[in-house]
Every structure is written in C-alpha cells, then in structure tokens.
C-alpha cells in the first residue's frame, strides 16, 4: 500500500473514531482516533519525501544536487 493510500485510510479511520468519541462518548475511540492521527503524521512525512523525489526527477536533477532549502533561504537573507 502506498503512503498516499495509508494516509487516506488513516484519515477515514480517524473520522469514524472521532465521530464515535464525540457523538457516542466512547472513550476507547479517543485512543484509536489519536493512533490514526499519529499514522497520518508519519504518512504525511513519507509522502512529502516521495513528492519531492518525483518533482526532482521530473526536473532532471539528481537528488542532493544544488542548495538545500535552508541554504537557499540563508543565501537569500544575506543579500
């Protein structure tokens, strides 16, 4: 399963568990909603990496070539 699919599944789980917690007051659903949110956070980080790699491959430059975002930001600030 891709990171995108994991992200979407975790979000659906979060929605269902959050509704059970708020709508029906089921305390165990709070823990499951929090777990789904943690999975969403991890999948977001991994998907961001994938998107960056895909974008760089479309641009034709190998990963790691050029300035990092921090270096570019600092270079801009120094001007």
Q: What does this protein structure show overall?
A:
GO terms for molecular function: DNA binding; structural constituent of chromatin. Belongs to the histone H1/H5 family. HCT subfamily. Might have a role analogous to that of eukaryotic histone proteins. InterPro entries: Hc1. The protein has 79 residues and is an all-alpha fold. The protein has one domain (3-58). Helix content is 82%, strand content 0%. Helix 1 runs antiparallel to helix 2. The chain is elongated and about 55 Å long. The mean pLDDT is 87.
List the helices and strands and how they pair.
Layout lengths: L2 H22 L2 H33 L9 H10 L1
What's this entry about, in short?
The protein is mostly helical and 79 residues long.
Q: Work out the count of structural domains.
A: 1
How would you state the average pLDDT, rounded?
87
Structural class: mainly alpha
Q: Shape from CA axes?
A: elongated
What is Rg?
19 Å
Distinct helical segment count: 3
What low-confidence regions span 5 or more consecutive residues with pLDDT below 50?
none
Supply database-style keywords:
79 residues; mainly alpha; structural constituent of chromatin
């Amino acid at each position: 399963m891709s990171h995108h699919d994991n992200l979407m599944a975790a979000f659906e789980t979060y929605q269902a568990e959050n509704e059970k917690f708020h709508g029906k007051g089921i305390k165990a659903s709070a823990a499951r909603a929090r777990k789904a949110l943690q999975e969403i956070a991890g999948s977001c980080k991994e998907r961001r990496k994938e998107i960056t790699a895909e974008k760089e491959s479309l641009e034709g430059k190998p990963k790691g070539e050029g300035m990092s975002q921090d270096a570019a930001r600092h270079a801009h600030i120094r001007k």
